[in-house]
Amino acid sequence: MLEWILALLVLIGAFFTLVGSIGLYKLPDFFMRLHGPTKATTLGVGAILLASALYFTFITEQTSLHEVLVTIFLFITAPVSAHLMAKAALHIKLKQIERTQNVSETERF
Amino acid sequence: MMLKKLFPHPILMLVLWATWLLLHNSLAPGHIVLGFILATFIPWLTSGFWPEKICLQKPLTLFKFLGVVLWDMLVANFTVAKLILGKNEHLQPSFICIELDITSPVGISLLANTISLTPGTVSCDLSADHRQLLVHGLHIKDAQATINEIKKRYEKPLMEVFTSC
After folding, report:
1. Are A73 and A42 in contact (CB under 8 A)?
2. Domain coordinates of chain A in residue numbers?
3. From the CA of A100, how many Å to the nearest CA of chain B?
4. ipTM tops the 0.85 cut
5. 3-class secondary structure, A78
6. Do A99 and B93 touch (CB under 8 A)?
């Protein structure tokens, strides 16, 4: 039973990480590509870490809580790095694809 | 008074203490004591970098907020996965500008982080006067509705928690 849950979690994690990478590859402009890694991967990594915590807690019978820290650090750093990259992209006036709306808003920043 | 001088940042202290114990993955008395010593001295030595005091007004609201954010992140992943795997031509990317009502710097950074972690939005820039936040959306049909949603769902609880004291 436990193995099924672990396998499912690892598969879910792998799937969402893959979707994040696909997004990074196929979306047309820089700002849209930022969305892939910041979101699709958080659940991906989250599911894999949950599987890791469960595995080490039940198989080695030693509570493993390192994963909680990994999750927290990831959730703190992922948005901050995305924010900084977006800020840098705005600063060097990187082009968005044409149908982006409200581009005029960026000029005030 | 004495206590305040010894422990200038109680929340930071608790966080450091918990982090130390989690890093070691143990509740052995030795680690508890060592963690306590570190958690006392690090905030004390770095207090020059923490000019403002952080105080939480309603801890319960904060926990409710965390629950809402975790749930939204779960949903966000499915929404964004669907958007990414769909056709690029169907996406309507857009910039939106949110007028902030929240003033606490910690509150603003938490709000920006939350926006980046939830459905199809990434926070891009904060205006110099900290009154406006620029957000990029992957697929936005109605900009005003998105702004209202963010303000109601995330900014309001954060404002309640991080009011100045």
Report:
1. no
2. 2-108
3. 5
4. no
5. helix
6. yes
